[in-house]
Design a protein that fits this description.
Strand order of the largest sheet: 4-3-2-1-5
Oligomer: single chain
Shape: elongated
Distance between the termini: 23 Å
Structural class: alpha+beta
Largest sheet: 5 strands, antiparallel
Number of strands: 5
Order of helices and strands: EEEEHE
Strand content: 35-45%
Radius of gyration: 14 Å
């Protein structure tokens, strides 16, 4: 069971470079008792790509979540209001 919900949606836009990207992450439980970090990214308005990472412990998933958040913030991504539907 996950102690608290982890969800993130960030965007990076630059009209001079025709750049409009999003990056979304969420930590969710799996049917087998593990924890899954789900990452989605791509161009804003498109479905984009998805990658899933399974972990036996929530702490491991949260560690990767925070590392990826730090990387995205350093690259110019900014928080947005809500996570769009898939």
């Amino acid at each position: 069971m996950i102690a608290q919900p982890y969800q993130l949606y960030v965007e990076r836009t630059d009209t001079s470079k025709n750049m409009a990207r999003f990056y979304a992450m969420a930590i969710e439980p799996t049917l087998f008792g593990d924890v899954c970090l789900i990452r989605r990214w791509g161009r804003i308005g498109a479905q984009g790509q998805e990658m899933r990472h399974s972990f036996p412990r929530e702490e491991d998933a949260v560690g990767l979540f925070l590392d990826l958040l730090r990387q995205k913030r350093n690259r110019g991504y900014h928080l947005k209001g809500r996570i769009p539907a898939r």
